[in-house]
Amino acid sequence: MFEPKIVCFLCKWCTSAGADLAGTSRLKYRPNGVNIRFMCSSRVDPEHILWAFHEGADGVLIGGCHPGDCHYEDGNYKTQARISLLNRLLDDFGIDTRRLRLEWISAAEGTKFANVMNDFTEELRSKGPLKLAAREMAK
Amino acid sequence: MKRIGVFVCHCGINIAETVDVKRVAEEAMQMEGVTYAQDYIYMCSEPGQALVREKIKEENLDAIIIAACSPTLHESTFRAAAEEAGLNPWQCEIANIREQCSWVHTDREKATRKAINIVGTIVQKTRLNESLEPIPVSITKKALVIGGGIAGIQAALDIADSGYKVILVEKESSIGGHMAQLSETFPTLDCSQCILTPKMVAAGKHPNIELLTYSEIEEVSGYVGNFNVRIRRKAPFVDWSKCNGCGLCMEKCPAKVSSVFDRELTTHGAIYVPFPQAVPNKPVIVKDSCIYFKTGKCRLCEKVCEIGAINFEQEDQFIEEEVGAIITATGFETLPVADLAEYGAGDVPDVIDGLAFERLLSASGPTVGEVRRPSDGMVPKEIVFVQCAGSRDPERYKPYCSKICCMYTTKHALLYKHRVHDGQSYIFYIDIRTGGKGYEEFYHNAEEEEGIIYLRGKVAKIFRDGDKTVVWGTDTLTGRNIEIAADLVVLATAVIPKDSTAELVKKLRIHTGPNGFLSEAHPKLRPVESINSGFFIAGAAQGPRDIPETVAQASAAACKVISLFSRDHLEQDPAIAWVDEDLCGGCRICISVCPYDAREYDEEKGIVIVNEALCEGCGSCVAACACGATQQRNLSDSQIKSMVTASLRGE
């Protein structure tokens, strides 16, 4: 069975704490994502996302605090704006925008984190591996 | 090249059961820069830390990685160990292979491969980590306590007694909280008012406590040691500096408002103090109920106030305060009876909740301590108490145990028996939980000596029939259905967080758990701290708890604040933004995204500089910088890119 690879950029205060809660609650979910912890989702540069696709990711998850809950006042709004703009570009690169997910997951939402990981893995599995011309050319 | 050591923790079987820790260490050895890798059963234990310290020296390590639990747990532990062995603390990183790997996966092979990749990402980060020095910041040695119930009062008193200033903010016009409503307290049957009011008075008079009642938190900014707080002082329409508390205005007010303090069993005027022992003992006018505010005519209170304290023109005031630490002690509410459809949805007059029954029992309550039911004032001869009304019911209401109800209901039945000697009480329960000093004995006495009938089972329906309130339940021990035509029914409704908690945590940027109660940094080891430094929590805002636990926790939170204030200065994480002066083109886009005004344009150099004292390290400016001139210390774009690559290794 195809096992998609997911890079997860999580903010420290909400989503990474939510992922920790999924752990302390012993929830089980698909092991397809590796988490990279940032202080804030607004640290994610669109370039990091494109780099992840270039390096072999089938999907990228950005996890931030719910609107209004950002530890840094409004970092998550900046993230959302940047992702919206990036989505317009992804098509040009031949990347289905559904391969990039932005989710608001709070420190209390361990269950949501587990569900998102399961759901995203299934969705990517149904899409199959990302074939990227740039990646092929690099090889 | 940097020599990196990787230490893989088994965490007993917590990690080792799902992740092949030996293989993780072996694979780590193959990674670029790693010159030593070792697994050990408990890395955080003293022998584990000793191993780390020893190997740093023996193997000449420049940096270490501990692959173990979440960094929120032991990052500071291992950074201290690294420092002891001569490393810069920022050369120690944590790879989270427990919460985010071994605990959430079942397939050993896949979990092991994921753990290897997690370690790989951290190796990449560590390779490029710089040694950093913490940035010293000053501390404002003044605390803010939010909530003036017993938790807030106790915490404020403890901090004030140690010589630091405290601002105690309470939303209502008086401090006291729910404890002021209680009649007696279990298991000693101390009069609640008698033990609480001296503390209220002490808090009101303490030279180090500034009491701001009828006030709410508007806005909080800043960080540990240096918070800026904006507080709204709601207009009471009474000049408290003039008011001498004579109470004439309250006697003359013709308006009728149902008393929240008395659980709507009585009414008071639009100008009122919630209870006679209030601290401060100053009235407020409820604008929505005041006849003058509604119709433009009346002003009776103003006429009778000889000292002219009434002021209808008063407006809310805002004050700004600087504090170094914040304790949130906002307490609890109980599930409204109206939410419980099968128990009459609040429409059956003789179905009340536990707090209302406290008021009926209280010597200072609406019936002066006589148990009289709300519908007709009759002394009830049969009372049914219903436990777990909304608690332990994950399908429909709250999944958790409200913890205090078993004990207070037993107390209710006992006090009722003491007031009405020929009365009979029945208690429907799921389980009786009596964890606490003297609690089990208290319950046994009630059951065996006082003739209270305990029925193990849930109540299905409560409805009114004539002047009786009929309870349908089941006794699961005998397997029979039971119908009791009672005179009064008391529901032990679920303890829930205050409505206002959700809004407050947004302002403070602290977190709540799935049921809306405040989250602690660690359930066992850091029970009174929030994960966000400088924020502490106490009392039932964190979850259902009784008075002894609340007081203990409040003192613990105060102790944490005092320990924070005992330092000369605090240290701020230096992993903040910096600017490469050669690359910066001075476009100033970073200034527009910085939430802290930590960036300014240097006219002379034509570049933007970072104010290190203000930068919080969110990294938003780094992502915004178009030319890569802005980077974040120890989380640069090149670090991130190599971490991404490492996270995708393998098939």
Description:
The complex is a heterodimer of chains A (139) and B (651). Helices cover 44% and strands 17% of the residues of chain A. Chain A has 139 residues and is of the alpha/beta class. Chain A has a single domain (6-138), classed as Rossmann fold, CATH 3.40.50. Chain A has a four-stranded parallel β-sheet, sandwiched between helices. In chain A, helix 1 links the parallel strand 1 and strand 2. The radius of gyration of chain A is 15 Å and the shape is globular. Chain B has 18 helices and 34 strands. A five-stranded parallel β-sheet of chain B has the order 10-7-6-18-29. Chain B has a five-stranded parallel β-sheet with strand order 20-27-21-22-23. At the A-B interface, helix 1, strand 2, helix 2, helix 3 and helix 4 of A face helix 4, helix 5, helix 17 and helix 18 of B.
Produce the secondary structure layout.
The complex is a heterodimer of chains A (139) and B (651).
Chain A: E1 6-11, H1 15-24, E2 33-38, H2 46-54, E3 59-64, H3 75-92, E4 100-104, H4 110-127, H5 133-138
Parallel strand pairs in A: 1-2, 1-3, 3-4
Helix pairs in contact in A: 1-4
Chain B: E1 4-9, H1 21-29, E2 34-40, H2 46-58, E3 63-68, H3 71-84, E4 92-96, H4 98-102, H5 108-127, E5 135-137, E6 142-146, H6 150-161, E7 165-169, E8 184-185, E9 190-191, H7 192-205, E10 209-212, E11 215-223, E12 226-233, H8 248-252, E13 257-258, E14 267-268, E15 271-272, E16 284-285, H9 291-295, H10 300-304, E17 317-323, E18 325-328, E19 332-334, E20 351-353, H11 354-361, E21 382-389, H12 405-419, E22 424-429, H13 439-448, E23 453-456, E24 459-465, E25 468-475, E26 480-486, E27 488-493, E28 495-497, H14 499-508, E29 535-537, H15 547-565, E30 570-572, E31 577-579, H16 589-593, E32 599-602, E33 607-610, H17 620-624, E34 630-632, H18 637-647
Parallel strand pairs in B: 1-2, 1-3, 3-4, 6-7, 6-18, 7-10, 18-29, 20-27, 21-22, 21-27, 22-23
Antiparallel strand pairs in B: 5-30, 8-9, 11-12, 12-17, 13-14, 15-16, 19-28, 24-25, 25-26, 31-34, 32-33
